[in-house]
């Protein structure tokens, strides 16, 4: 056939984020004409020409960052640059050992960050696995198999149950065609498809004449025409949105980066000042530079990146034990600052098991207890158990069993189901009241059936009823079934009941039957009229019981919960009401309503509205961004491809491990192995514990760095110069390598046990901390200054005392006397750290409150450091590397006593602070 004109060809091309031709609103004939195709398909020549113009049916993949770019990202930090400069200057000045040790620290921190980021997932790559390898197409009227990558707009594709849809298709013919679209639309049950046109403004989940690439055919057959391939498909549009989302920094990483800039700036200024002071006091230039380098090494918390990484890794292990798998380390801490959880409904808040809960017949209402895919439950009328199955209810349930394509099988002590979840719910309803599905079907053998199709919204089955009679059962949408019932049917009364059930979020099906003469096949006129209505069955995917308690826990912790689902609004509001998420005062919103809102209107709506339904991927992404614009830290849950962009945009993306697609898991920071909302709350609790313990680690680490800086500054400013080989040199209380020993070995060994501390009391009864809360609060700064001054005073005092004592005897060479004095200073600082560790186990209360032995790793850390410190003093290799010397038992005792003075001083400070806090509460109470 003749190819269409060039402008018509270009009509199928579109940017991933610009709407294309509304194929769902055009008749099938108009679609074929617009695409320049026929029901017999394209010619091979036309297909090749279009493939060259449109490109292959694959998703474009953005190139991941190169290894060099990742490596540079780890180095490009103010603290790292200061250390690199310090190492280089030390080597140039002849202090090769000191310079190499500092350089080794830089390499260690760089490798840790590089490995962590290099192993991060690549979300967009997973989208390609959703496109099948081959497709069945018609070329010049002949069915052929072609690689899915070679499909072009205008190709005619044939689909059957079990096929994965290879591109975006407009259906031309279909029979009982259903597609599992949960991954793309969030719809909890397979979508029934038809060929009739739908409204141009229909939402994605309501475009019933389209099949989208990457979805799965669950039943029936269809012939369809390709309307979009590759990046022009819905999958491609989602891929494009994911490229536009940014991996956000976490509150902790932002605060640590800011802290690093402050420390770096302060170090540069102080080093310059100290360089000037050294020159004024008569230091040689090389010695003055060495002093500045030593200050940088002392003040930079070199061990902090390792402490943070290891503490987060410990949090990862604890979360994994609670069925939450962290994919990106910073996500551990981000959970603790979460202010809003945006959650999917199906499978997360609900069981993802359709359950019949309400029955209605002409004799009244009947409730059916029990949830999920189990045959356990009972009938209730007026709240009381029904002892004997009423005839009207038996007839209603019988119709649900016979007019049904699903089946039940026992599996390992429990029941499994094959077929549509809605039909499976009807079978479990019958099992709950003791009806045998197999027995009923054997007693009423099926003769023929008209399968369910979206065009007519019903299913009919014909069954033998005696030697010459037959019985016809009808199941479908209430309004469709009512049109086929006799004139005596009170349609208004039935529709009132339908509306009542719908307000409860129930999906309602109507059932009817009629007798007829025995026949081998059903004719269309057999199902047109003459039916008697049997009743209604209402079903719902019930909420998880543990989800209700978890939502309450979130509210107590100051965390808002918002439901974002692809399901219908009425169902979402009903579930939200049961869970305590939805308030009738603030009605839910649909994706179509959101699309019409301006950014300002959306920002206002998102403050109070907690239920959002029928959402497309761009709606979820826009909602997450609106919440973030208001300063919220957003956790977003999801399981489908449609959730991937918002999962990536959220501060913390949470994917489902059981029902989640590979795309959603790759885009997320956290994966739930049990798909349970309660696990999210447990992870939030663990995140708050991790943050608390990181603050304890910071409060422990920073006084050491400030104390070491004070030791050097006071020494350079006030200590006399020493004579060595006729040259006047600065009298430093510690060498750079000794400072690194304290910063990397002693500090890290003692700080790590703090990561194992138990959670503080009421951790889930306090509001989330504000995202811009500084990690160095006024309290931590004051504590840091107090402990640093005590540490510096003790170390300097014992250093001068030991140096004067040893040097004054005249029997000890000056070099050995200096080495022993420096070792005394190091030992004193380490003693301070050991005693201060006990005080950091809880920053505000007494150690008795957390329990003396509740964290036994503290004892392990102290024991390990004692052994390492002994090696530092007495092993010759360490003496040569660090310039240390052995100390006597008396010297060690003096350094330990000096370190112990931190206990009463900080203990008094804690007591005074608690008294002031209690006094403030008393004043506010009065």
TrEMBL record:
Location(s) in or outside the cell: Endomembrane system
Domain Cation-transporting P-type ATPase N-terminal: 22-95
GO annotations of cellular component type: endomembrane system; plasma membrane
Molecular function as annotated in GO: ATP binding; ATP hydrolysis activity; P-type sodium:potassium-exchanging transporter activity
Pfam families: Cation_ATPase, Cation_ATPase_C, Cation_ATPase_N, E1-E2_ATPase
Chief site of localization: membrane
Residues passing through the membrane, by range: 70-93, 99-115, 262-284, 290-314, 698-719, 739-758, 779-801, 821-839, 859-877, 892-912
Keywords: ATP-binding, Hydrolase, Magnesium, Membrane, Nucleotide-binding, Phosphoprotein, Translocase, Transmembrane, Transmembrane helix
Membrane topology, as annotated: Multi-pass membrane protein
Entry keyword Transmembrane: yes
GO process annotations (BP): intracellular potassium ion homeostasis; intracellular sodium ion homeostasis; potassium ion import across plasma membrane; proton transmembrane transport; sodium ion export across plasma membrane
Similarity-based family: Belongs to the cation transport ATPase (P-type) (TC 3.A.3) family. Type IIA subfamily.
Name listed for the protein in its UniProt record: HAD family hydrolase
Organism: Corallococcus aberystwythensis
